[in-house]
């Protein structure tokens, strides 16, 4: 146990987020502490009690300050208990104080931290009972926090001197959507060189400020405000070694510095964001701080970045924490966002620039000279701070186009396709069609246009392709799509195309439930570009659906494996009575909505949720026109068995033909690229391969997209 005299030197452990340790060590030295070593836990240092109080007030980087109480070798539960009993706990905190144990670490004899915490708690209570006759109460929000760490065979016991995490400054009660912790924000600013710029009276802009954490931390640095000055509770409040007069002297000194710093503040701070909810959080956070009125928040798009000519000329730092694109669906908007960020900051060519990102590839759009990269962890996400200098001749050149380098070949191919397809689409009254389908193997995406939206599917690259290289190519594609197609990034949806089997056949990609109507022939159909891998409309079957419309008048139409019943809509509008069968209740309801969209009463038609194989075996009705487009493979739990279309197609066709009236037509289709119809097994039927005719113009680049047959009764 360390003594508590005024001159006594203590050993301290200052914990911090991973990657910040060197900065924290510098901060400790600046405050007057003696750094012993940096560890993966933080920084171990020496200093007296006054310095510890000063550290709690002034550390911008630490998360906790721990006072070591005991360490010893332990090799079983009993030894752990005895080690905890060896501390004179009544000399650490009073019987009336409540306490909690934070236990970290596992070994072969202890793999439950809750049990470890219980043993330490038992030891503390037993010591109190023996020495005082009473026992302190345990509380999850206890006045006292004891931290126990079990590592490398040793038990380390600490008194949590600071209490709640030091990153909680007290101003951020509304955190925003993806907040930075305050100590991480401070580390970003220090690495970006803000303290030196602020000392010169330079300015700071965060053009994607969110709830304003970077700006608040920057303001406190510039105004010499101790980050802990507004905190009301500290871990040391209940420590028996606490010397309140020394603490209050440090608080008074910090208040004097704050008053002087605010009086001398020359830096101007600007926060912009397009999200009003985020800005509301930022302004409310600001109002709770000493910086109220010292930071300007405004709703503004990144492209509208501007400050007064006076501020622009005086220089400063542009710093931001833009979205990283953790979800694949976010990338279409982010690829051009980083380019717009570069373009906007070119209005401030002499300013420094710092970008904190979890996706360095996105930041390739920033064409300033980069002179430093720093690694950080933002929670579980590996991130980098990229620090750029003033714009040079290359970065200052106006960039008329994002189409440069290897992606130019992709852009040229897509442009060529567009020229042909848009003329064809206008002539044929087609509003949804495929623009590109891995025409260049290195750009392995499928791009479909749905009215004025783009639906982009990335084919998962083979393991032989470097993952980082594939992602860079994808980002290049997303960056140039708005320019080549004229469709804004906000209307581009990205998904990853993988084989869907079993449960994943109906697995959601998102939960936005946004449906939009699209036109096809004489009907409208609902598509959902975001929630599922497929959109609700198979574009390669457009000619088949239009053919069904031309044949359906007055017919009884059966649509097997109907999906969203789009073919049934065409048939019903043409005057057919429709029976639509599918296993999925979701898609059948979607089909009913498609009927309603076209002023058809779905109750006048049949929508049947069933395993199509079983339903066909039991079917006793007869139909004039049948469309059967089964999946290539299915092992859904709703099915009795496993469907393999190559193996099972003969049985399927025979059963469907039993339901077909004499003179009727079965249109049988599937998407197995190497499918071979067993004509010998179906020798009694009149079969015509219409695959070539059924593949539309926009799919001719991949003519084996599906196989399609017209099948009638023989004789």
UniProtKB/TrEMBL annotation:
**Keyword RNA-binding (UniProt):** yes
Key words, A-Z: Cytoplasm, Methyltransferase, RNA-binding, rRNA processing, S-adenosyl-L-methionine, Transferase
The record's annotation in InterPro entries points to: 23SrRNA_methyltr_KL, DNA_methylase_N6_adenine_CS, RlmKL-like_Mtase, RlmL_1st, SAM-dep_methyl-trfase, SAM-dependent_MTases_sf, THUMP_dom
CDD domains listed in its UniProt record: AdoMet_MTases, THUMP_AdoMetMT
One Pfam family from the record:
UPF0020
SUPFAM superfamilies for the chain: S-adenosyl-L-methionine-dependent methyltransferases (SSF53335)
**GO MF entries:** 23S rRNA (guanine(2445)-N(2))-methyltransferase activity; RNA binding; rRNA (guanine-N7-)-methyltransferase activity
EC assignment: 2.1.1.173, 2.1.1.264
Q: Name one GO cellular component term.
A: cytoplasm
Q: Where is the protein situated, by its record's location annotation? A: Cytoplasm
Which superkingdom? Bacteria
Q: Which reaction does it catalyse?
A: guanosine(2445) in 23S rRNA + S-adenosyl-L-methionine = N(2)-methylguanosine(2445) in 23S rRNA + S-adenosyl-L-homocysteine + H(+); guanosine(2069) in 23S rRNA + S-adenosyl-L-methionine = N(2)-methylguanosine(2069) in 23S rRNA + S-adenosyl-L-homocysteine + H(+)
Q: What is its main location?
A: cytoplasm
Gene3D superfamilies found in the cross-reference section:
3.30.2130.30, RNA methyltransferase domain (HRMD) like (3.30.750.80), Vaccinia Virus protein VP39 (3.40.50.150)
**Where does the THUMP domain lie?**
51-161
Free-text function comment from the UniProt entry: Specifically methylates the guanine in position 2445 (m2G2445) and the guanine in position 2069 (m7G2069) of 23S rRNA.
UniProt family annotation: Belongs to the methyltransferase superfamily. RlmKL family.
- Supply the name of the protein: Ribosomal RNA large subunit methyltransferase K/L
Task: Give the organism, scientific name.
Answer: Venatoribacter cucullus
């Amino acid at each position: 146990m360390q003594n508590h005299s005024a001159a006594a030197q203590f050993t301290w452990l200052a914990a911090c987020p991973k990657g910040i340790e060197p900065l924290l060590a510098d901060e400790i030295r600046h405050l007057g502490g003696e750094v012993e070593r940096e560890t993966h836990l933080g920084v171990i240092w020496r200093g007296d009690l006054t310095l510890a109080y000063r550290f709690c007030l002034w550390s911008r980087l630490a998360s906790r300050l721990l006072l070591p109480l005991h360490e010893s070798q332990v090799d079983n539960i009993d030894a752990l208990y005895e080690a905890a009993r060896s501390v004179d706990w009544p000399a650490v905190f009073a019987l009336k104080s409540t306490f909690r144990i934070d236990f970290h670490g596992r070994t072969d004899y202890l793999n439950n931290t809750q049990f470890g915490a219980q043993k330490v708690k038992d030891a503390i209570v037993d010591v109190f009972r023996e020495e005082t006759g009473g026992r302190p109460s345990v509380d999850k929000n206890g006045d006292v926090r004891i931290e126990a760490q079990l590592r490398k065979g040793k038990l380390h016991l600490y008194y949590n001197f600071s209490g709640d995490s030091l990153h909680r400054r007290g101003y951020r009660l509304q955190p925003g959507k993806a907040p930075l912790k305050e100590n991480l924000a401070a580390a970003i600013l220090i690495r970006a060189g803000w303290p030196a710029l602020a000392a010169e009276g330079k300015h700071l802009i965060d053009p994607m400020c969110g709830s304003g954490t970077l700006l608040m931390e920057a303001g406190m640095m510039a105004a010499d405000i101790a980050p802990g000055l507004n905190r009301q509770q500290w871990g040391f409040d209940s420590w028996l070694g606490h010397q309140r007069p020394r603490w209050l002297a440090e608080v008074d000194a910090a208040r004097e510095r704050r008053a002087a710093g605010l009086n001398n503040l020359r830096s101007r701070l600007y926060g912009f964001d397009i999200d009003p909810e985020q800005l509301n959080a930022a302004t409310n956070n600001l109002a709770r701080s000493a910086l109220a009125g010292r930071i300007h928040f405004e709703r503004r798009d990144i492209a509208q970045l501007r400050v007064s000519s006076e501020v622009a000329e005086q220089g400063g730092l542009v710093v931001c924490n833009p979205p990283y694109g953790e979800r694949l669906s976010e990338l279409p908007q982010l690829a051009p966002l980083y380019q717009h960020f570069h373009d906007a900051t070119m209005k401030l060519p002499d300013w420094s620039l710092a970008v904190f990102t979890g996706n360095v590839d996105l930041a390739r759009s920033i064409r300033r000279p980069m002179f430093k990269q720093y690694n950080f962890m933002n929670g579980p996400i590996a991130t980098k701070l990229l620090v750029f200098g003033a714009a040079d001749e290359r970065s200052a050149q106006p960039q008329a186009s994002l189409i440069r380098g290897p992606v130019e070949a992709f852009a040229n191919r897509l442009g060529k396709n567009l020229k042909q397809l848009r003329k064809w689409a206008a002539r044929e009254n087609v509003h949804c069609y495929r623009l590109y389908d891995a025409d260049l193997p290195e750009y392995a995406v499928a791009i479909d246009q749905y009215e004025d939206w783009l639906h982009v599917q990335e084919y998962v690259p083979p393991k032989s392709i470097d993952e980082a290289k594939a992602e860079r190519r994808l980002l290049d594609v997303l960056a140039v799509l708005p320019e080549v197609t004229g469709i804004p990034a906000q209307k581009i949806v990205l998904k990853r195309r993988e084989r869907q089997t079993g449960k994943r056949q109906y697995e959601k990609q998102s939960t936005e439930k946004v449906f939009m109507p699209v036109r096809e022939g004489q009907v409208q159909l609902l598509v959902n570009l975001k929630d599922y891998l497929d959109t609700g409309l198979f574009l390669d079957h457009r000619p088949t659906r239009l053919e069904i419309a031309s044949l359906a008048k007055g017919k009884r139409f059966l649509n097997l494996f109907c999906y969203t019943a789009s073919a049934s809509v065409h048939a019903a509008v043409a005057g057919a009575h429709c029976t639509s069968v599918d296993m999925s209740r979701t898609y059948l309801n979607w089909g009913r909505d498609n009927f309603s969209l076209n002023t058809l009463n779905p109750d006048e038609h049949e929508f049947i949720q069933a395993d199509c194989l079983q339903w066909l075996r039991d079917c006793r009705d007869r139909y004039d026109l049948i469309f059967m487009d089964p999946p290539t493979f299915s092992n859904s739990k709703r099915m009795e068995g496993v469907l393999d279309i190559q193996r099972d197609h003969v049985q399927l066709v025979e059963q469907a033909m039993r339901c077909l009236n004499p003179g009727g037509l079965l249109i049988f289709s599937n998407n197995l690229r190497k499918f071979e119809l067993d004509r010998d097994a179906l020798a009694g039927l009149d079969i015509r391969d219409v695959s070539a005719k059924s593949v539309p113009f926009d799919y001719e680049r991949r003519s084996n997209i599906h196989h399609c047959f017209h099948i009638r009764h023989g004789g």
